[in-house]
Design a protein that fits this description.
The protein is an alpha/beta fold and about 425 residues long. It has one domain: Alkaline Phosphatase, subunit A. Helices cover about 35% and strands about 15% of the residues. It contains 13 helices and 16 strands. Strands 1, 2, 5, 6, 7, 8, 9, 12, 13 and 14 form a ten-stranded mixed sheet that branches. The chain binds zinc ion.
C-alpha cells in the first residue's frame, strides 16, 4: 500500500511539473460487450456505409479482427469459454442441454451450476473489483459476486435466483409484446398477426408469422430487457470496475431472416417476401449499434472496451445447411469466425490483428489489469493489441485461480426440468438444436 501512495504522489508531481514522459496506464474500467453471431462479412459493409457509427468509431480508434471460435458452435459453450479462458471439457458447459441419468432421457438446459471453474468476474471480484454482469449466457442461477448480476433467465420474469444480490432489479418486467409490435415497422413491412401463427401450417403466412414471432419478437424483447437492465445498472451509483453485457438478438435474426437478405442463394423466396423482410438483419444491427452507443455513453475515455462475438454467421447453404425439421424455416447458420474490437488506453490505434481466439479474452483482460494469467487457462495474452508496457504479461503466471475441488458433473443441478427450463428448451427446439 505504502509503495502505491508513493507512486501516486510521484506521478502527481511529475505531471504537475509538466513532465511529458508518461508511462502508459491501463484504463480504470473495463466494458465487455458480447454481441452474438457478429461477422465481418456483414459488419464491414455496414460500417463502410455508415450504418454502425458507434461500432465503426470504436474499430477505427482501436484494434480489430476476426475472432476464432471453437466447436461445438454452441453459444452457451462458447460464451463460457470466453468468460473462463478454458476449454468446454474444463469449464463443464459442453452443450445446450444435458441428459441426466435416470431422467428417462428428458433434456435439461445447462445452467451455471454446471460450470466447474471461475469466470473472470469471480477472479476480479475476489480482488475487490466491482463487477456487473448483465444477461451473459449460463449465469443463472445467480451466484454471489462482488457487485451485481442479472442472469440470462431474468427476462422471463419472476424467476427464482434471477439476480444478485437477491431481489436486485426484480421489478424489471419482461418487455410486453405491444412494445415490440410498435417498433416492428422500422425493421420490416409486416402485417403481423399474432393470432395466426403456426410453424407447421400449410399457409405460408402463418408460417411467416411464426418466424417473425420466434426470431424477431422474442429476440427484440430479450435484448430490450437487458439493455434496460444495463441502463439501470450503470445509472445506479459509481460505475463498476468491470461490466459484462450480452445481447443475443443479432444471432436470432441472422438465423431467421438470412434468406430474405440473399434470396438468390435460396429456393422459393418470393420477391414480395424479400421486400418485406430483406432488411431485418441490417436494421437489427443498426438498432444494436444505437443501443450500444447508449451503453458507451456512460463511460469516459478511461475505459477499455472489448466488443466480441462467439462465432460468425452466414447463409445456411451448401455445407452450412442444417437439415432438421425445425430448421426448415430458418436460413442463417453459424461460421467459425466471429468479430473482435478492442479500444481504450494502451490499445494500439487502427490496427488489424489476425490470430485472436475466444480463449484469449480472459487471459488478456487479466494481464491488462495487471493480474497473472493462470497456467490452466487455454488462451494467451493478445500482446499484439497493446502498446509496450500494457498487457505484456509482466505479472507472470500462476498455476490456477481455482480453489477447492471441481464439482462432480451430475450432482450440480436438479434433474427435473422446471417451468423456465421448459421455456428455454422451447427456444432451443425452435432453432433445431434439439428435438
Ligand atoms: Zn446461433
Amino acid at each position: 500500500m505504502r509503495v502505491g501512495v508513493v507512486a501516486v504522489l510521484f506521478l502527481g508531481f511529475a505531471s504537475f511539473a509538466g513532465c511529458t514522459w508518461s508511462k502508459p496506464k491501463p484504463a480504470r474500467r473495463i466494458l465487455v460487450l458480447a454481441l452474438d453471431g457478429g461477422t465481418w462479412d456483414l459488419l464491414d459493409g455496414y460500417m463502410q456505409r455508415g450504418l454502425l457509427p458507434n461500432l465503426a468509431k470504436l474499430r477505427k480508434g482501436g484494434v480489430w479482427g476476426p475472432l476464432k471460435s471453437i466447436k461445438p458452435s454452441s453459444s452457451p459453450v462458447i460464451w463460457t469459454t470466453v468468460a473462463t479462458g478454458k476449454t468446454p471439457e474444463k469449464h463443464g458447459i459442453t452443450f445446450f442441454v444435458r441428459f441426466p441419468t435416470g431422467n428417462t432421457g428428458q433434456p435439461v438446459p445447462v445452467s451455471r451450476t454446471l460450470r466447474r471453474c471461475k469466470a473472470i468476474w469471480n477472479i476480479l471480484g475476489d480482488r475487490d473489483k466491482d463487477v456487473a454482469i448483465d444477461g451473459w449466457l449460463i449465469t443463472w442461477p445467480a451466484e454471489e459476486v462482488y457487485g451485481r448480476m442479472i442472469t440470462d433467465r431474468a427476462h422471463y420474469g419472476n424467476v427464482e435466483k434471477e439476480s444478485f444480490p437477491p431481489g436486485y432489479m426484480t421489478e424489471l418486467q419482461p418487455v410486453p409484446i405491444e412494445k415490440v409490435l410498435k417498433v416492428m415497422p422500422s425493421f420490416m413491412s409486416e402485417d403481423f398477426d399474432f393470432g395466426h401463427m403456426d410453424r407447421n401450417s400449410k399457409d405460408p403466412e402463418e408460417r411467416l408469422n411464426f418466424l417473425v414471432y420466434d426470431r424477431f419478437v422474442r429476440a427484440y424483447a430479450r435484448d430490450e430487457f437487458y439493455l434496460e437492465a444495463a441502463e439501470r445498472m450503470l445509472d445506479d451509483g459509481p460505475l463498476p470496475d468491470a461490466t459484462f453485457v450480452y445481447l443475443r438478438g443479432t444471432d436470432d435474426v441472422q438465423h431467421g431472416f438470412w434468406k430474405f437478405m440473399e434470396p438468390d442463394k435460396f429456393k422459393g423466396v418470393t420477391e414480395e417476401e424479400a421486400r418485406r423482410f430483406g432488411k431485418v438483419i441490417e436494421r437489427y444491427w443498426q438498432w444494436t449499434d444505437q443501443a450500444v452507443g447508449k451503453i458507451f455513453s456512460h463511460f469516459d475515455k478511461d475505459t477499455l472496451i472489448v466488443v466480441l462475438s462467439d462465432h460468425g454467421g452466414g447463409p445456411a447453404v451448401g455445407k452450412y445447411k442444417i437439415i432438421t425439421k425445425e430448421y426448415l424455416q430458418l436460413s442463417g447458420s453459424h461460421r467459425n469466425t466471429g468479430i473482435l474490437i478492442i479500444n481504450g488506453p494502451g490499445v494500439k490505434v487502427g490496427k488489424e490483428i489476425d490470430f485472436a481466439s475466444v480463449y484469449d479474452i480472459t487471459p488478456t483482460l487479466l494481464a491488462y489489469v495487471g493480474l497473472p494469467v493462470a497456467e490452466d487457462m487455454d488462451g494467451r495474452i493478445l500482446k499484439e493489441a497493446f502498446v509496450p508496457g500494457i498487457a505484456n504479461g509482466s505479472a507472470g503466471t500462476i498455476a490456477t485461480y481455482e480453489t477447492g475441488k471441481p464439482k462432480p458433473i451430475e450432482a450440480a443441478q436438479p434433474d427435473k426440468p422446471s417451468a423456465v427450463d421448459k421455456k428455454v428448451l422451447e427456444g432451443l427446439r425452435s432453432l433445431g438444436y434439439i428435438n
